[in-house]
Structures are given as C-alpha cells and as structure tokens.
Amino acid sequence: DIQMTQSPSSVSASVGDRVTITCRASQGISSWLAWYQQKPGKAPKLLIYAASSLQSGVPSRFSGSGSGTDFTLTISSLQPEDFATYYCQQANSFPVTFGQGTRLEIK
Amino acid sequence: QVQLVQSGAEVKKPGASVKVSCKASGYTFTSYYMHWVRQAPGQGLEWMGIINPSGGSTSYAQKFQGRVTMTRDTSTSTVYMELSSLRSEDTAVYYCARSLTDNYMDVWGKGTTVTVSS
To answer: CB-based contact (8 Å) between B102 and chain A?
Structure first.
C-alpha cells in the first residue's frame, strides 16, 4: 500500500496568513493526488484534484502543487471559514489511502 | 441537484452485521463509481472499498476482505455496504462518495454513524 504522510499534524495561523501543508507519498504517484477539507461533523469536501486542479466552486486562494512523491496545499490568505482539517489522498492505485490529516487552528 | 442520501444511525452488538445504504440522485447512477470511507471518533479517513454500479464489480481494502460486501440496486440507484462480525473498533461514521475512474471523490453523503456496543 502507498503510505501518505502529512506535515505538520497541526498548525496555528491567523486570518490573512499564508499557510502551506505538505504531503509525501511512500512511492511515486505522478499527479494522482487530491486534497480535501473537513469541518467538524461534516463530510469531507474535495478542494484540489490531479495535484493542482481546483475543484469547481472552490475559492482561488486554495492551490496545489507537486508531482511524484512530494505535494503541497497552499492557502494564500486564510479566511475564518478555512479553519478545518485537511487531508491528502492518493488516487494512483488501490487501496486508496489518505494522509493522517492536518488540523488548521486559529491563533 | 446531485446528492447521496445515506441511511440512519445504527447501534449494533459485537458480532452482529450492519448494512448501510446510499441512494444517489441528480446524475446517471451507473456513470460513477462509489467508494465507502469510514472515520472513527477523532480519527482520520479510512478507505474501505469501491463498487462499480454499472457491472457491480468491487475492490475492497485488504483490512476488510471477508467482512465487507458492497452491492448495488440499479433500479433504485442505491448502493449498500454490509459489514459483518462487528467489533467495538468498527464504531465510526461511514461515508459513501462518488468518483469517476480517477478516484477523486467529488460528492459525499452526510455519513451514517454506526455504534458497536454491548
């Protein structure tokens, strides 16, 4: 199975800050990577697919980059509604696997 | 609008089975795969498996092989996930989510809470 490792596990930031979350795959997955946002008590929401493609309706302050084994999710200017947990997911092969999550908290 | 409506919360005893449903609407049911993902309390997301509603083929995570069965009913646009031999560690919220062949899950159900307790 492909292991996905996110860092950091949690981060504190302020409204307006730029935040970057990293995801590393245990083997190359080309660009087969997605990012999801999850708020407490809610289902995950797809933000980014194919490593850098923005899902329809997602604000442009979210961006993704990377290929192979190293990926990043960047939020350019944090908004109050962005405080949530973020997960990466590899879509290269079965079993689909997720990172352990990064909790983004208000400083 | 596109939506996945899941069945209600369940409470089961250890050793029992649970069957969760996920009814799709607003799109062509057989054009998208359906995944099942679970989340234990305070934990991350765990992929359980996938079903192709078109032909019914499935692929399960090794961890659940032999205990999980995913089926579909094309007449009602519903997929089902049955998990047997339940134990306390199976207490979780179970989500269905659709994707194309790319495995990017763009629409999710609201989740079904399954509690396993004696």
So the answer is: yes
CB of B81 within 8 Å of a chain A CB? The answer is: no
Contacts of B55 (CB under 8 A, 6+ apart): none
Cβ–Cβ < 8 Å for A97, A4: yes
* Structural contact between residues A29 and A90, judged by C-beta atoms closer than 8 angstroms: yes
Task: Say yes or no for a CB contact (<8 Å) between A49 and B46.
Answer: no
Using DSSP, state whether A68 is helix, strand or coil.
Answer: coil
Tell me the residue ranges of DSSP E strands in B14-117.
Answer: 18-25, 33-39, 46-51, 58-60, 68-73, 78-83, 92-99, 107-108, 112-116
Kindly report, residue by residue over B45-63, the tens digit of the pLDDT.
Answer: 999 999 999 999 999 999 9
Copy the structure tokens of residue A12. Answer: 């504190």
Chain A CB contacts of B108 below 8 Å: 43-45
Enumerate the residues of chain B whose CB falls inside 8 A of the CB of residue A1: 62
Q: What is the number of other CB atoms lying within 10 angstroms of the CB of residue B112?
A: 21
Q: What is the pLDDT of residues A20-65, one digit of tens each?
A: 999 999 999 999 999 999 999 999 999 999 999 999 999 999 999 9
Select from B59, B104, B111 the Cβ nearest to the Cβ of A34: B104
